[in-house]
Known about the structure:
Two copies of one chain form a homodimer.
Chain A: E1 2-6, H1 10-21, E2 25-29, H2 33-41, E3 47-49, E4 60-63, H3 70-77, E5 86-89, H4 95-101, E6 108-113, E7 134-138, H5 145-157, E8 161-164, H6 167-193, H7 198-207, H8 210-216, H9 223-232, H10 234-256, H11 260-273, H12 275-278
Parallel strand pairs in A: 1-2, 1-4, 2-3, 4-5, 5-6, 7-8
Antiparallel strand pairs in A: 6-7
Helix pairs in contact in A: 6-10, 9-10
Amino acid sequence: MIVGIVGLGLIGGSLGLELRSQGYRVLGVSRQAATCERAMARGAVDGAAVDYGILASADLVFLCPPIGAIPATLTQLLPHLQPQAILTDVGSVKASIVEAIAPHWPRFIGGHPMAGTADQGIEAAHLGLFRDAPYILTPTATTPPDCVEAVAEVVQSLGSHLYTCSPTEHDQAVAAISHLPVFVSAALIASCDQEPNPKVRELAQQFASSGFRDTSRVGGGNPELGRMMAQYNATALGRSLRAYRDRLDHLITQLEQQNWDHLEAFLTATAAARPAYVAPHPPPSPPTDQPSPTGGSL
Amino acid sequence: MIVGIVGLGLIGGSLGLELRSQGYRVLGVSRQAATCERAMARGAVDGAAVDYGILASADLVFLCPPIGAIPATLTQLLPHLQPQAILTDVGSVKASIVEAIAPHWPRFIGGHPMAGTADQGIEAAHLGLFRDAPYILTPTATTPPDCVEAVAEVVQSLGSHLYTCSPTEHDQAVAAISHLPVFVSAALIASCDQEPNPKVRELAQQFASSGFRDTSRVGGGNPELGRMMAQYNATALGRSLRAYRDRLDHLITQLEQQNWDHLEAFLTATAAARPAYVAPHPPPSPPTDQPSPTGGSL
């Protein structure tokens, strides 16, 4: 099988390293000739070019550009693909991407490897990035089953834990545990920093300790990444933010009513609920719609 | 100077160890005879008893019981104190405590050492607990200056960084950076855990990673401690929660209006504001109302 990778950054480069190590032939495309050269030098691809024509023979293509660049990438890529080629992507939101791609290429299945590091780019690419990390595939009613099977087989060869769900379920789950925390945390920083009494704000800065540090961490992160979360997952994030505001309003009401027993019960429930989110997760059982890998079916 | 300590737990025991190491004579009171014995065995006190009469000779008494036990403690303690004795406490909220104590003992000054460990009790007490940690004193217009001076001198001998502010300023600052994060974080857990679609909730649990882990940490902590924050710092916490909700509502509005530039600017501002809260703080300059230690002024 020949695998194509469009976008040779951390994710694309790491995919190339893994797949080449397993004997796949890997061909890459980058906007930058220098990146193509570095990807070849690092052994992430067998060949790379700035021209999409290099992917004419690919059986499976991973789309790894920034989310905002996907429409432009598609326009350039699709004319070069052979009709049976399978297309997948690695974007961190799914409904909007699936809606943008599937009508133009029916043999597409959305994907999201939940792996990353603080470092970006081809130099950060490394073997093992996807090992034991969730990798979510989001087939729809119209996704051809052989496309699901083929991509699932490659994903499992990465050592990832494979999950399948609908694009909307993916986006809602990721909004709740990844995107919502960014905005919850940013609002915490903003509310402290807009304290009207300068003496209180100065004291707050001096007294802040590990509780504030942890709760504010993701709200002090990359603003462009936060903007992308909002822009590309707006529907699910809005749903999460409104549900969050309801919980917050409930807490404020209980505080104003001096309902201490209720507040303690609320905090007892959150302490009991948290471990299910932060404890190590067993690998998922194989989805029932997911056949065992059959080996080289493409 | 003879120092009394009521409550021989982590804070009271550690105070005793520090002050004895500097030559103060330290006398302790605990409700439990066994705790008195352990405090003596560990060298945290020169003497200890369950009877408050042991503190009849004390020049300075640290009140270190749980906040909720302070009124009952006062009733038992005050009849035994000599009239010139100075009283201070170590509670994590100040306005309600100062209001409860100062009318009954004018030679009182509220205090809050911002130090602690996960472990509690006399066995957890140790030298160095207060070193390089903030220690806040909250004098009011009626606090006798010699009481401020005497407690400040002892606090500085602990190696703490001394801050002075009003009880209300203390409570508002602590609400913002310590108590608010608990409720912001708990509401995050609750909103995820009350997800109406069970499939989405299950996926959220499986996909949650470091962002959710950090942002949810203090909301999954000790429910009794959270209740105490709400109960004893209700005014300041309510103020912080309402300011926080305003910021959150603002974010939701921007999201609904698809104002991506504004959201990015908001996140850029929070990323810029955060370091002032989490970077190491230089020790405070000596407060202008704070004389240099004069040594043995009591």
